């Protein structure tokens, strides 16, 4: 899953990026409001973490409002040192989905990110499933037919993204934009390579394949 951080305090931005990357997310950082606005409204992020007070012509509220006006429905977690009820209300009314007051514990931020990434259809479960395959987004364990499977962090991120979009044909470009960050120089055949790694681990040892090639387009995962 791909995350955008908009935060002008470099130290906080770097700490967040590092923590989120350790959790297998692809992370981009914008350090001011204008860059944050441009990225949030043009790149397909799965979640955006946006600081309230930012230099530039857009503050956090402005970015969220602009995103919602542009019909960008990416879940937004607002960060702010301003924790009064009226400040929280303003953030949520502008279109943010959650609000975290600084200073906060990284563990809490990560838990809130996981919560925002869950869909109602997944019944708030941390476990994603397809057929006899399960992926636990909290413990990072993957099993198929009760057999543990070891994945690298990129393989895990790719599988997680596919499990969150079951049965949906995903183009290589869409996969790249959700699994790799902006700085990664990724070509469509890199996706083919990672799909091959994943197939060797989750499909090859088993009878029924879960990853299907959609000819001339990309891949879909179906249990
Ligand atoms: Ca700030």
Task: Walk me through this protein's architecture.
With 223 residues, this protein is α/β, with parallel strands linked by helices. The chain has 2 domains: 2-121, Response regulator (Rossmann fold, 3-Layer(aba) Sandwich), CATH 3.40.50.2300; 127-221, Winged helix-like DNA-binding domain superfamily/Winged helix DNA-binding domain (Arc Repressor Mutant, subunit A), CATH 1.10.10.10. The chain has helices spanning 10-22, 33-42, 60-69, 85-94, 106-117, 153-163, 172-179, 188-202; strands spanning 2-6, 26-30, 47-51, 76-80, 98-101, 127-130, 133-136, 141-144, 147-149, 170-171, 211-214, 218-221. The two termini are 20 Å apart. Bound molecules: calcium ion. Calcium ion is lined by residues 8-9, 51, 53-54. Calcium ion binds at residues 8-9, 51, 53-54.
Taking all Cα atoms into account, the compactness measure Rg is 18 Å
The strand line-up of the biggest sheet is 2-1-3-4-5
Approximate strand percentage = 15-25%
What CATH architecture of the largest domain do you see? 3-Layer(aba) Sandwich
How many separate helices? 8
Structural class: alpha/beta
Outline of the structure:
Helix content is 40%, strand content 22%. The protein has 223 residues and is of the alpha/beta class. It folds into two domains: 120 residues, Rossmann fold (3-Layer(aba) Sandwich), CATH 3.40.50.2300; 95 residues, Arc Repressor Mutant, subunit A, CATH 1.10.10.
């Amino acid at each position: 899953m791909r995350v955008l951080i908009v935060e002008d305090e470099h130290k906080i931005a770097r700490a967040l990026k590092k923590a989120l990357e350790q959790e297998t997310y692809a992370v981009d950082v914008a350090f001011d409001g204008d860059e944050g606005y441009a990225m949030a409204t043009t790149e397909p992020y799965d979640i955006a973490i946006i600081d309230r007070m930012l230099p530039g012509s857009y503050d956090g509220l402005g970015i969220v409002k602009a995103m919602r006006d542009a019909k960008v429905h990416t879940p937004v977690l607002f960060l702010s040192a301003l924790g009064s009820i009226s400040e929280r209300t303003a953030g949520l009314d502008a279109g943010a989905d959650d609000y975290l007051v600084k200073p906060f514990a990284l563990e809490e931020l990560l838990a809130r990110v996981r919560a925002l990434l869950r869909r109602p259809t997944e019944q708030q479960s941390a476990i994603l499933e397809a057929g006899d395959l399960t992926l636990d987004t909290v413990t990072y364990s993957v099993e198929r037919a009760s057999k543990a499977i070891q994945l690298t962090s990129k393989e895990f991120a790719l599988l997680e993204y596919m499990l969150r979009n079951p049965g949906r044909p995903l183009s290589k470009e869409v996969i790249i934009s959700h699994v790799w960050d902006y700085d990664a120089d990724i070509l469509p055949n890199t996706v083919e390579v990672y799909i091959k790694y994943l197939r060797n681990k989750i499909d090859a040892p088993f009878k029924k394949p879960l990853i299907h090639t959609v000819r001339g387009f990309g891949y879909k995962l179906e249990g």
